Amino acid sequence: MNPGRRLRWMVRVLLLLLSVAVGGVLAEGILGLLDLHGPLPAFLTRDQYLAMVSSEERARLKSELPEGFFFARDVDGMGPFPIPPGRFAIEKPAGIFRIFAFGGSTTYGLPFTQAAGRKKDLSFPSWLRLRLKGRFAGRPIEVHNVGAIGQTFEGAVQFAKECLHYQPDAFLFYSGHNEYLPHALLLARARARSSFVLRAGSPFLDYRLGRLWQNWMVSIQERVNPRVGTLDFPVVERMVDACYHTEEESEVMRTGYRRCLEGLWADCRRAGVRLILCTVACNLVDFEPSLSCPSSKASESDRQRWTDALRATRDLLRGGDARGSLNLLDALDPAAQGLAEACFIRGRAQLELGLREKGLLNLKEARDRDGVVRRAPSWVNEELRASSDRHPEILKVDLEQEFEAGDLQALPGRLWFFDHVHPNRAGTAKIVDALERAIVESRWLGEAGMPERRSTEQELNELGYIPEMIGAVHSTQALAYGGLILLRLYDARDRLAEARALIEAIPAAGSAFQRNAQVLLGLLEVLAGEQDSGKARLEALRSRSPREVKDLIQSFLDRAQSPVIRDIFRRAGLCPFESKD
């Protein structure tokens, strides 16, 4: 190629690159003007906060909200990840030790903050702040909750990057249960199947155009993967069926989690921010796996045979014959013995026989092999411990071990948890105890005073937890349990009696909490085959609150995303129910 032609080609390439750059800048500007695909902020300035509320609310708040403050974005219309209410000074006053706590719904305070109508932060970070103020009376301490319902670890790290601007002294992370939520699974699937395409855009994810690129890739995966929607977990129609994720997608999630951990540590080290990493705990004992996944070579007859055998072993265990249940499991095919449900039944039977360590190992195996992952698998805590080992400056709080310590009566089950992952009052107190102990022993805040002798009730009263909230908390628990039944649609009839007892025990009959729970109970009755009872319950509720009940049922149908459920409702004559005013 002669020099003149080479020069012309170089000019063309440069012009092409320049046009792409100019087009990218213009597209970024247009997206900015339209406020599309921007980062979702954890906190708002005073004026941003006021802009998000109604005119009546704005007039009232103008006189109450001081200048120079940031506010947690717990405002209607701010997107899918509300965080608890709170405020703090933009310029941190001298002498204050400022901690930001990050994570998902447990950090957020579910169900307690929900029970307070999101007007009070009743989470473990808020409780920890109360404890630390008691132990370090001469040191002003702030603990700000940036926990967000449904937030993944990657999303929490993005919030942490924002909070680096607000003069933090320490970051606290309790995050790992949401890594397999549908929106996270679809992103992992996009990264696994379109790795080169997404890698090409990954350097630009701090820009709106890069996030638009990623959202497109996820949208494509959503269209070609109808089993996994972004609204909620899938409804499982059979005990033994194909898994909802692959080993490759799990490895993508684990690699991303590790990368975020290392990036978080690097950011904290550069900014001089201390880092507290908590391993995550869950209900191992009372939460069965949603789906048992055989190999792809298993025939339909094998799956049905294993399902029948697993039901028989479970019935023996429920009847008090733990030894017989183990003997029946041992007689199964080797392939069936490795199914998630088999691991769970074996673990529970071993606990019944006093084999604590073996039982816990099998219950963890059941959690890790679940085809619809609702609790952090073992690799999450393995990565957290490995990161803490690599960087001794990290303060590790091993909450998983805290919940597993003790005798057979103190195992991680309903003693500590409302449902599969959310701790009850006793579980939240255990988290706060461990964090308080670790921070005091670290001597970050100097020498601690003697702990104040106060009961759990006294501390909760100071936070604003009042007896009137108990009904809302019970309702949240019942609704969560009903949702778990939907995950195991094949078990709806077996679990209906337990769900009915939970729902009918909710106090404050006639309240919105009771009504919502009763609607769920009616839906569960229809799904479990008690159609007359369910339809009568729904019609009675509809006669009192037609609009609210219609919206609840429509929301249920939208989130279930299951043709089987829609078919059950259609045959029960409830589909016209959706369209009535």
Describe the structure.
This protein is α/β, with parallel strands linked by helices and 581 residues long. Among the domains are: 36 residues; 70 residues, Serine Threonine Protein Phosphatase 5, Tetratricopeptide repeat; 111 residues, no CATH class. The protein contains 27 helices and 8 strands. The strands form 2 sheets. It has a 5-stranded parallel sheet, with helices on both faces. Strands 1-2-3 form a 3-stranded antiparallel sheet. The longest helix has 31 residues. The C terminus is likely disordered.
Oligomer: single chain
- What strand line-up does the widest sheet have? 5-4-6-7-8
* CA-atom Rg in angstroms: 26 Å
Global outline: globular
Helix content: 55-70%
How would you sum up the major sheet?
5 strands, parallel
Uncertain segments are 74-81, 576-581
Percentage of β-strand residues: 5-15%
Q: What's the total number of strands? A: 8
Given the helix and strand composition, which structural class is it?
A: alpha/beta
Report the mean per-residue pLDDT as an integer: 79
Query: How widely separated are the two ends?
Result: 76 Å
The number of helical segments is 27
Strand and helix map with partners:
Layout: H1 3-33, E1 43-45, H2 46-51, H3 55-62, E2 69-72, E3 87-89, E4 97-103, H4 105-108, H5 112-115, H6 124-135, E5 141-147, H7 153-163, E6 170-174, H8 182-193, H9 195-201, H10 208-224, H11 247-271, E7 274-278, H12 300-318, H13 322-330, H14 334-337, H15 340-352, H16 356-369, H17 378-390, E8 395-397, H18 399-404, H19 425-442, H20 456-463, H21 470-487, H22 492-504, H23 512-527, H24 531-544, H25 546-560, H26 563-571, H27 575-579
Parallel strand pairs: 4-5, 4-6, 6-7, 7-8
Antiparallel strand pairs: 1-2, 2-3
Helix pairs in contact: 6-19, 7-11, 8-9, 8-10, 8-11, 11-17, 12-13, 12-15, 13-15, 15-16, 21-22, 21-23, 22-23, 23-24, 24-25
